[in-house]
Write a structure and sequence with these properties.
This protein is mainly α and 296 residues long. The chain is built from 13 helices and no strands. The protein starts with a helix and ends with a helix.
Length: 296
């Protein structure tokens, strides 16, 4: 039986319909994502100052400067603090998600309390904690109530500033990971918990043998997001310290190169290096957890 012309037209329209829906999103993605990335890569091989319409191609000179100036990579020391904070954040989020997934009194209240900081604008959080960590401010007052002293330069001491800033990031982003973990835990079949309870398994055994294996792909995803996030921290340190006192991050340094020193070409090269590092970390994580490819 040969297909008629009407059925062929109908099949053609059906095949074309998904692409019509994807046309606008793809166009926006190309215009506002891929084209700027391509321009950034092109500018990284130039001496463009970000203002002049003229620029000169300098080859690999910007990349050579990045890798031959140690001070440009010292900013990753600050990223190490945020990486440690991300580990604490993931552990706390997993703990609270596990506890509140069971029948706990006031659990809806605690869910709202944990997730609320993530809803606040990052600029507002920066200003709130700027006053919170001031000498003689709220934090020193609270410590004084417990007889722990105060008067520390939480944002002025190079040994304390990154600890303070990374603590703010834990408070802000804890709710996001908490919601992700909680949703994944609640999607586990209740029959597994019932069977585990019949076998005499306690909460720890249920977490170890039911919850943790189910969350393995999600934990891998949050690890990628944590590493990429600690490398691209910007809002909190920029607002609270402006990158002063050993708190400068790679992104803040890149912005200073572009807008303060008019070295947009060098800043573009730094941004490309950061992009490559993040992609490399994601690739290594996928290699370290090959079973996640099967799950996805």
């Amino acid at each position: 039986m040969t297909p008629t012309s009407s059925s062929l037209r109908r099949g053609g329209r059906q095949a074309l319909t998904p692409w019509m829906f994807l046309l606008v999103p793809l166009a926006l993605l190309v215009v506002f994502s891929y084209v700027p990335i391509i321009n950034m890569v092109v500018y990284s091989f130039t001496d463009w100052d970000g203002v002049s319409p003229d620029y000169t191609f300098t080859g690999m000179e910007n990349y050579v400067e990045i890798f031959t100036r140690p001070e440009l990579f010292k900013v990753f020391v600050a990223s190490a603090y945020y990486l440690g904070a991300a580990v604490v954040q993931i552990v706390l989020a997993l703990y609270f998600a596990t506890v509140l997934s069971f029948n706990t009194r006031f659990r809806n209240l605690f869910k709202g309390i944990l997730f609320f900081p993530y809803l606040i604008n990052g600029v507002a959080i920066g200003f709130v904690f700027l006053y919170f960590f001031q000498e003689g401010g709220t934090f020193d007052t609270v410590l004084g109530l417990f007889g722990l002293g105060g008067g520390q330069l939480w944002l002025g001491d190079p040994d304390l500033v990154n600890v303070s800033l990374s603590g703010v990031s834990v408070w802000r982003f804890l709710g996001l990971n908490f919601v992700l973990f909680l949703g994944a835990i609640q999607s586990i079949s209740p029959e597994l918990y019932e069977a585990a309870e019949l076998d005499g398994a306690g909460r720890w055994q249920q977490f170890r043998f039911i919850i943790a294996p189910s969350l393995r792909p999600l934990i891998g995803l949050t690890a990628i997001l944590a590493i990429s996030g600690c490398l691209s921290v910007f809002e909190i340190p920029y607002i609270m310290t402006g990158g002063a006192g050993a708190s400068e991050t790679f992104v803040i340094q890149t912005i200073k190169l572009a807008f303060r020193f008019d070295k947009t070409g060098l800043a573009s090269a730094a941004a490309v290096v950061l992009l490559v590092i993040i992609l490399l970390v994601a690739w290594l994580q996928r290699r370290a957890f090959p079973e996640e490819r099967v799950a996805s």
